Amino acid sequence: MTWRNKWLQLAILAIAIAVLPLFFPSGYYYRVGALIFVNALAVVGLVILIGYAGQISLGHAGFAGIGAYACALAPEHLGLHPALSPVLGAVVSGVLALLIGRPILRLKGYYLAVATLGFGILVSMVLTNERALTGGPDGMQVADLGLRAVLRDLGWRLSGGEFWYGASGIVLVLGAWIALNLFDSPTGRAMRALHGSEVAAATVGVDVARQKLRAFVISAVYASVAGSLLALQNGYITPDVAGFLHSVEMVTMAVLGGVGSVLGATLGAAILTLLPQVLTVFAEYEQLVLGAVMILVMIFLPQGLLPSIARRLRGRDE
Amino acid sequence: MDALLQFIFSGVTVGAVYALVALGFTIIYNASDVVNFAQGEFVMLGGMITVFAFEAGMPLPLAAVLAVLATAAIGVALNKLAIEPARGAPVVTLIIITIGASILIRGAAQLVFDKQLHRFPAFSGDDPIRILGATILPQSLWVIVGALVVFVGLWLFFTRTLTGKAVLATANNRVAAQLVGINTAWVMTLSFGLSAAIGALAGVLVTPITLVSYDVGVALALKGFAAAMLGGMGNPKGALAGGLLLGLLEALTAGYLSSQYKDAVAFIVILGVLFAMPQGLFGKSATERV
Q1: Which partner for B217 in A197, A264, B44, B157 could form a disulfide, CB atoms 3.0-4.6 Å apart?
Q2: Average pLDDT of every residue of chain A
Q3: Structural domains of chain B, with CATH
């Protein structure tokens, strides 16, 4: 048994999503679950960028912001159906990633980090400052998807929480499936090769710039779709979704769970999403605990939670 | 013309603060290849500790010295507790550790101090000085002179003292430095302490102008980082030039274009520079060894 086993990972994910609601004591947990899945989706995108291709981004919240505001703006200004606006957001994010990715991805390490960070901050600044369009820091309403009403007409009555739990869960499994398929595909192998050594990968014929760009665009689309889902399920959106701290949160989730692993990404997203919920009782200590968790995990489990645990289990088997 | 001069004065003041933050980045980066995202929190701590020590009845100069020393101690602790244990970790890990440290310090500051805006009196009063039709606050002069003194001090330290040369040697090649008997662990400790002290000094100098609260660090860290990158990471001259340039650009943008987008300038410039010159304005190009 290996953690790389695609179907096993997908089955664990799907079963967890399907079974967990049996233990929910109240409707509130559906909301939290849906939020975890949305975050996990964005983080799966980062697994492709950071875990597969070995590139860093501190600006992916910018793409989440584009996806989110596409859902808020397109139905009102372009007359687009709410169900199509996530697609528009994904297209805009993908094209933007393609355009800025080419010059940005020539950079390495900290230089890449600061360039992506700059991009993310510019997006959040535009969203904050263009009050006439986006409502500024106060945010704006997002039109309802309308899908729940369709289901109701078909005789399937779901609460908002239940609907979004299911919908985000399905999108997450789909996203995980694509990411896992990519892992062993020629593209995925090329990405992992350049992660190991760019020079070595180029020597055996990998188009390094092209594969980096691919990983960047794919992860941007993931972040955008996650942003769209967040906007739709909350019915409300503020520029915070594109903020620097959200970018950091996403990278932390990815690295916390285990940056090469799709299941780990979900675990990391779950932990960091639950942490503030658990800590609301100690709201004052939230930042303190979050900072301490980030440092401790990186020092003691540098591979991330899931790979470290998996290694320990395997070590015991042998 | 008066307006231009006025913008230049405010730009140089802000730029001097960015330059101090960028110098702090540079020192730590040189000694350890770590970009310390908690650098902005050192500025915050410098301001906050001075405010609270001053309000507790301590004379202002003593409070300022206490703030710088306490922050230096926190910088050393950060190195010992969070950076040294993760020695040799990949860039992503180190970024998350230092961002985690900045969130931790912010959370602690919010508990130990409070969430209010604070200031203490300017060192030489609040009466603006008139120069050629524009005005400048005496405290701005303190900030600018402070940045220059720190820069010259660092230059002397790195070129004229044995310890300073040991730091440079460690930055150049850690293993070789160890081989000739330099205690590289001590160099790391020194760098974090020095860098934190410089950050705290910036906080002490600028608080009478810009005020301080527990969350001022993030923006300063990002701007300082951008300034350091602009000048070329790891180059003190670049840090000074990058900081001043960034401050001037911001002030001129706020004055002539849009005050809403003044914060955007830093990042537009940094993207432009990185696209054209991936090593920064003063950086040397490096080749990857295989």
Answers
A1: B44
A2: 86
A3: 2-276 (1.10.3470)
Q: Measured between alpha carbons, how far is A292 from A283 in angstroms, rounded to an integer?
A: 15
Domain ranges of chain A: 28-244
Out of A244, A284, A298, closest to residue B111 by CB: A284
Phi-psi category of B88—alpha, beta or left, where left has phi over 0 and alpha has psi -120 to 50?
Answer: left
Determine whether the interchain pair B95/A115 forms a contact, defined as Cβ–Cβ distance below 8 Å.
Answer: no
- Grade residue A317 by pLDDT with cuts at 50, 70 and 90: very low
B219 interface with A at CB cutoff 8 Å: no
Q: Which residues in B lie closer than 8 A to residue A114 (C-beta atoms)?
A: 225-226, 229, 270, 274
Q: Is the dihedral of CA A39, A42, A45, A49 positive or negative?
A: negative
How many Å lie between the alpha carbon of A105 and the closest alpha carbon of chain B? 10
Q: Looking at beta carbons, which residues of chain A come within 8 Å of B267?
A: 117-119, 121-122
> What pairing do the DSSP bridges indicate for beta strands B129-131 and A140-141?
unpaired
Nearest to B274 among A111, A200, A245 (CB): A111
pLDDT for the residue numbered A36 = 93
Give the residue from B234, B224, B230 showing the smallest Cα distance to B31: B234
Given a cut of 50, whether residue A1 has pLDDT beyond it is no
Measured CA to CA, the distance from residue A282 to residue A175 in angstroms comes to 34
How far is C-alpha B106 from the chain's CA centre?
16
Task: Give the ranges where chain B is alpha helix by DSSP (H).
Answer: 2-32, 39-55, 60-78, 91-112, 138-160, 162-172, 174-179, 184-210, 217-231, 236-256, 262-276
d(CA B90, CA B230): 23
Residue A315's pLDDT band (cuts 50, 70, 90): low
- Nearest chain B Cα to A295, which residue? B97
For residues A142 and A157, is the Cβ–Cβ distance under 8 A? no
Least confident of A6-10, A116-120, B80-84: A6-10
